[in-house]
Design goal:
There is one protein chain. This protein has 904 residues and is an alpha+beta fold. The protein has a domain at 343-353 and 368-626: Neutral Protease Domain 2 (Neutral Protease, domain 2, Orthogonal Bundle). The chain is built from 29 helices and 32 strands. The strands form 8 sheets. Strands 1, 2, 4, 5, 6, 9, 12, 14 and 15 form a 9-stranded mixed β-sheet that branches. A 5-stranded mixed β-sheet has the order 17-18-19-21-20. The protein binds zinc ion. Residues 300, 332, 336, 355, 358 line the site of zinc ion.
């Protein structure tokens, strides 16, 4: 075989030969933790060729390949390029264009704990322990479980047969047609052991389950599982097809009592999607399997969604936040049944088409239909838009649609599952939807879906659909938002009866070069003005050049605001006096500025200060003005920004750090006292969230009243394991603060919660709490525990989260990562988690010398699997260092002038 000149050719299989149908048999031996199979693939020959190339992952052992052409069969030894996970079958006779051939490949592999391919998970019930196996294929791990053409565009039908032990359950994408017993001869025949992979030594009684044939589908959404599962069932009647399909949630026995809500969500959102898209859910069933070991949050396998326990399980002890997570993740995955599964990205550079849509449809639009009281559309500004702009403000960010680079497809693809593909993509779509109106936008989406049923798409296909619905040139409007890195910051100044608006590329270091500042975006200005006390917004006003002067009578003293309702993917820098005017208007009774406006103002003020487009004192003054605002989202935005300020200032003099905390206590403490810790069962969601937000923020700043309450609420847990005084929505706050301000006793109590958690969220709260201890010995105990072998790989990130947030352990965490880097790299090989862990362990530093030290450490190491996260973490350190250089004095002076200096 010759080496391609351009290494990126390794990414793609040749297109001479494409699969039509996989007939796939898998035997799962849960005792030996091995699997074995045979796959017969029908092929279409598009160009005459002597070669068939497909993928097989590391760890898969193949037998001979039997090639069938026109009734003639030949056996060929495959050439395996393990490094590039590619198999070549060289033929003596060419396969003629237009002919139909097939290949049969036997294989075997190990059911390991990699959380990729066909892997092992564990259960524990009534004193017994065991394991089961399930698949995770996205993006490039189907090839670890069976030889296949593992690219999204190479769609084929799949007929699955599972061989499994009697008494166990087999699940696949489609419903099981039949289950029958099978003997050793039957197993050997089904696995084609004559092709060089000997029959497994697997005594006992075995079953064969045959599943129905799927529609044409991509390999990454194929799924199966085998184990001892329980399930809950309901059904959905489609008004489009008049068919009734079963809906189920499967868990291992210990969790089934907490699976009702995840099932209910499917019933709630399916009719919404069918109505909005006017396309029926296409498969005859929709299952969800809840797994104890899972790398991502959840996965949209067609007809068999999978996901974490902490995402899917819910009961009364889980709280509102947990309920929202279950609803939004389930709804996101169900949205993928259309976006991604029916119409699929052509290649991974268009990942955003899948993820941005599922995020916007699943977490905002459908939830707004089902739970209007949750205010999901406004929450989006704090969650997704904020995340998007934070990452995209970095020099090391990337365009939404990204050409994949590098030697290894898995490394390159894994790294684009980030806030750009999900959150920025969704933010850009939301902007478009607000600009056109949601009805027109969704009409365009429906046109797009119907045009590309069971096919593959690129971004332009979507724009064509929305152009048809809106009559506008959407491609021209959107192309820079999708193809260019970054987003603009608008600088506005008053010129008589007009404002001058200028766009430049935003960078969190505030220093774009002319080359980096070349993009001009089409920016919807959404200018809000107030006339006769009533707000009015001009959504048609666009900025499509560098600068524009917009007439605005009495601009110097009127209340006006750009980016009304925070619909846009940009920041706005006002002159300090106008920001003050907006702050006053925002704080006024019957304010013309909406909740979304206020949240946007707070986020903009602090982000612009961090990046040097404004002074931090302006953000602090705005926060002082908005003190006492009773909306949970404004408080969430404020808490987040002040927490980031405190975090960046972690090595500043103690007096300044105390003054920052005194300010935070002044902002959140009075509201915490007013609202108290007494949650009511019938509290509105808004009140519940406001209370948990201000308690968390006041407690984090060290508010004495809040800490006394925490102590009192924690006491029964300390005494006799009674957590009834702690509402689930402040569980994480209470456990974290109890550990932070307590000692070994508090730590031990939280360890008991960890070991016997009533819900997965209790366990999650405990994992986060351990990292907040201030005691060096207990911090070491936490770190030792993480690496003791007792912590699941999927859970490392929760420990890292607080160890990085806690100033007392930041450096310990980084020292640990350095010392154990090889161990981490091996443990998380091929997972999404490694890049998150590396990023969280470095991103809180705020000195240039730390950035240099991180660079020096990785200089001689292979960073291909997390190069983007590493660069982003380094950018964070440097942005924080510059922020301090610019504004350390400014912050200290403002705090002193406003009486927040320590007085004792
Ligand atoms: Zn998704």
């Amino acid at each position: 075989m010759s080496t391609p000149e351009n290494s990126s050719e390794w990414f793609r299989l040749p297109t001479d030969v494409r699969p039509r149908h996989y007939d796939l048999t898998i035997l799962s031996d849960l005792e030996a933790l091995t699997f074995q199979g045979a796959v017969a693939t029908e092929l279409e020959i598009f160009n005459t060729t002597r070669q068939i190339q497909f993928n097989a992952g590391k760890g898969l052992t193949l037998g001979s390949v039997r090639v069938s052409l026109d009734g003639k069969q030949t056996s060929v030894a495959p050439y395996i390029d393990a490094e590039h996970e590619r198999v070549t079958v060289q033929l003596d006779e060419p396969l003629q264009q237009g002919s139909h051939a097939s290949i049969l490949v036997p294989f075997r592999g190990v059911i390991d704990d990699s959380m990729m391919g066909y892997y092992k998970s564990t259960w524990e019930h009534e004193g017994k322990k065991g394991h089961y196996a399930l698949t995770q294929f996205e993006p490039t791990s189907a090839r670890r479980a069976f030889p296949c053409f593992d690219e999204p565009e190479l769609k084929a039908k799949v007929t699955l047969h599972m061989l499994h032990r009697d008494g166990s359950t087999a699940l696949g994408n489609m419903p099981a047609d039949q289950t029958s017993s099978i003997d050793a001869n039957g197993i050997a025949a089904a696995l084609h052991t004559d092709l060089g992979v000997p029959a497994p030594d697997a005594p006992g009684a075995w079953l064969r389950t045959d599943f129905g044939t799927t529609p044409k589908m991509s390999t990454y959404i194929i799924a199966w599982a085998n184990g001892h599962f329980c399930h809950l069932e309901s059904e959905y009647h489609s008004s489009l097809t008049n068919k009734t399909i079963p809906l189920r949630v499967y868990t291992t026995p210990e969790y089934i009592h907490q699976a009702h809500y995840a099932l209910q969500v499917k019933n709630l959102v399916l009719p919404v999607y069918e109505k909005l898209f006017d396309v029926a859910y296409p498969l005859p069933k929709l299952d969800t399997l809840v797994a104890s070991d899972f790398d991502a949050g959840a996965m949209e396998n067609w007809g068999l969604i999978t996901g974490r326990t902490s995402v899917y399980l819910y009961d009364d002890k889980t709280g509102l936040q947990g309920k929202k997570v279950t609803a939004s993740v389930q709804s996101h995955e169900v949205a993928h049944m259309w976006f991604g599964n029916i119409a699929t990205l052509a290649w991974w550079d268009n990942l955003w088409l899948n993820e941005a849509f599922a995020t916007l449809m699943g977490e905002v639009i459908s939830l707004d239909h089902v739970y209007p009281e949750w205010n999901s559309a406004s929450e989006f500004i704090v969650s997704h838009l904020g995340r998007a702009l934070e990452l995209d403000g970095k020099r090391s960010s990337h365009p939404i649609e990204i050409p994949l680079q590098g030697e290894n497809v898995e490394d390159a693809v894994n790294q684009v599952f980030d806030a750009i593909s999900y959150s920025k993509g969704a933010s850009v779509l939301r902007m478009l939807s607000r600009l056109l109106g949601e009805d027109v936008f969704l009409k365009g989406v429906s046109i797009y879906l119907k045009k590309h049923l069971y096919a593959n798409t690129v971004t332009k296909d979507l724009w064509d659909g929305i152009s048809e619905a809106s009559g506008k040139d959407i491609n021209a409007l959107m192309s820079n938002w999708i193809l260019k890195q970054g987003f603009p910051v608008l600088t506005v100044s008053v010129e008589g009866d007009a404002i001058r608006v200028r766009q430049n590329r935003f960078l969190d270091t505030g220093d774009p070069t002319p080359g980096e500042d070349a993009t001009l975006w089409q920016v919807p200005l959404a200018l809000k003005t107030v006339q006769n006390g009533k707000p009015q917004t001009d959504f048609a006003l666009m900025l499509d050049e560098r600068e524009k002067v917009v007439p605005l009578p009495r601009a110097a003293d009127a209340v006006w605001k750009l980016n009304a309702e925070t619909i846009g993917v940009y920041r706005v820098a006002y002159a300090p006096e106008h920001l003050q005017r907006l702050g006053k208007a925002a704080a006024a009774q019957n304010s013309p500025l909406s909740l979304e406006d206020r949240v946007g103002l707070v986020s903009d003020a602090f982000t612009l200060a961090q990046a040097g487009y404004a002074r931090t004192s302006g953000g602090l003054a705005l926060m002082q003005e908005l003190r006492g605002d009773k909306s949970s989202l404004v408080n969430q935005a404020a808490a987040l920004n002040l927490q980031q300020l405190g975090s960046a200032w972690w090595e500043q003099p103690e007096g300044v750090r105390d003054a920052i905390n005194a300010f935070r206590i002044d902002v959140f403490g009075p509201l915490a006292r007013e609202l108290t810790f007494d949650f009511g069962k019938d509290d509105a969601p808004e009140l519940r969230e406001l209370r948990s937000t201000v308690i968390g923020a006041a407690g984090a700043a060290g508010d004495p009243w809040t800490l006394a309450q925490v102590k009192e609420r924690f006491a029964p847990l300390l005494d006799h394991d009674d957590d009834s005084r702690i509402d689930p929505d402040i569980l994480r706050t209470v456990l974290s603060l109890a550990v932070r301000h307590g000692g070994a006793n508090e730590y031990d109590v939280v360890m008991r919660v960890y070991n016997k958690p009533p819900t997965p969220r209790h366990k999650l709260a405990a994992m986060v709490a351990f990292g907040y201890t201030q005691d060096r010995a207990l911090l070491q105990r936490t770190i030792d525990f993480v690496f003791s072998g007792k912590v699941k790989s999927q859970d490392f990130m929760y420990f890292f989260m607080s160890l990085a947030a806690n100033p007392s352990s930041r450096r310990m965490l980084w020292e640990t990562v350095k010392a154990r880097f090889d161990e981490l790299a091996a443990r998380f090989e091929g997972n999404f988690s490694l890049s998150n862990l590396i990023k969280s362990s470095i991103s809180s530093f705020s000195q240039e010398q730390d950035a240099k030290e991180v660079e020096a450490f990785f200089a001689a190491r292979n960073t291909a699997k997390f190069s983007m996260s590493l660069a982003q973490g380094l950018d964070s350190i440097r942005a924080q260092a510059r922020w301090l250089e610019r504004d350390a004095q400014n912050v200290a002076a403002w705090l002193k002038a406003h009486g927040y200096e320590r007085t004792e």
